[in-house]
Design a protein that fits this description.
The protein is of the alpha/beta class. The protein folds into 2 domains: 199 residues, D-Maltodextrin-Binding Protein, domain 2; 98 residues, 3-Layer(aba) Sandwich (D-Maltodextrin-Binding Protein, domain 2), CATH 3.40.190. Helix content is 45%, strand content 18%. The strands form 2 sheets. It has a 5-stranded mixed beta sheet. The protein has a 5-stranded mixed beta sheet with strand order 7-6-8-5-9. Strand 6, helix 5 and strand 7 form a beta-alpha-beta unit. The longest helix is centred in the last third of the chain and has 20 residues.
């Protein structure tokens, strides 16, 4: 038997919008391409440091962090595949609103997701386009996900901005109602990517291509699999979450286009996200596609699967 090659991966938390990676692990897609993939959770905001320090081979990374790091420090953490193709956060209110408009947030109190900056930045961008200034919305900062939910339910805020992972039980129990999806508001962006260090890519190009090939294979399965099959495959990896919540959360994410149709990091989507983040002053200096994306990896991975030719 051929010995599989070890490859380590890290994510911030066990989140439903990373489900494609968990499906690849559970289904053996990486093993099929000769890899023994291990997986750890590092906590929000800690992944880039772990990747730079060599504590993991591949990071499920937020481009907002890799762009900022390149802009401020010159560090190159290179994207080799798209994990999440649209913004997976949802804005919920305590009552249903059929004709909700972003201008309805003026003068209202909002709990955001304190563990990550992207949702608030994206909503600020959309509000600014709608003519709503930053000071027109009362954001409650620095409150953990669990506490913000409790305080929202207690009536301390009008709206809550969270991923499906944390709010699906509220939606199911009609304790909260979706009024807007950042996926629809922001459009196509590489919200999460598979990122590696440039030196890792040089030394282990073949292994990284194999990894992306396995990930791509899992994505293709995910696109057409039934919700029941998906839940049976990955629910054990979300031990803290009831299987029915995994299923409904997956359905919501798939309906919103959160899971990409292709592993390729699309240039126009990357540059759209770059403009959004620059417009809300997340970073000052340019962080170009050419410096932070290696598109050849996806092309080689698809060719390895027989899904495309290398030109």
């Amino acid at each position: 038997m051929t010995q599989r090659i070890p490859l380590s991966t890290t994510e911030a938390d066990r989140l439903l919008f990373y489900l494609s990676h968990h499906a690849a692990l559970a289904r053996g897609d990486y093993a099929e391409f000769g890899l023994d993939v291990s997986h750890t959770v590092c906590g929000f905001g800690k992944g880039p440091d772990r990747l730079v320090a060599g504590g993991t081979d591949v990071l499920l990374a937020a481009p907002m962090m890799t762009m900022k790091r390149f802009s401020e420090r010159g560090d190159r953490l290179v994207a080799v595949a798209t994990v999440t193709a649209r913004h997976p956060f949802r804005l919920v209110g305590r009552t249903a609103a059929q004709d909700f408009s972003l201008t309805d947030l003026a003068g209202k109190v909002v709990f955001d997701f304190a563990e990550a900056a992207t949702p608030k930045l994206a909503l600020r961008w959309a509000l600014n386009l709608a003519g709503i200034k930053d000071g027109d919305v009362h954001w409650i900062p620095g409150v953990s996900a669990g506490e913000s939910i409790s305080r929202f339910l207690a009536g301390e805020a009008d709206f809550l901005l969270h991923p499906v992972d944390t709010i699906q039980p509220l939606i199911d129990g009609e304790e909260a109602f979706v009024v807007a999806d950042l996926a629809d508001i922001v459009g196509d962006i590489p919200f999460t990517v598979l990122a590696v260090r440039p030196d890792t890519l040089r030394r282990r190009m073949d292994d990284i291509v194999a990894f992306v090939a396995g990930f791509s294979q899992a994505l293709d399965w995910l696109a057409s699999a039934s919700t029941g099959d998906v839940v049976r495959t990955v629910a054990h990896m979300y031990g803290r979450m009831p299987p029915e919540v995994v299923g409904r959360g997956f359905d919501a994410n798939r309906r919103l286009g959160v899971y990409p149709q292709s592993v390729t990091v699309d240039r126009s989507a990357f540059e759209s996200f770059h403009r959004l983040l620059r417009s809300v002053d997340w970073f000052a200096n340019d962080a170009p596609y050419e410096a932070l994306v290696a598109p050849d990896v996806a092309r080689h991975a698809l060719a390895r699967r027989g899904c495309g030719d290398i030109q």
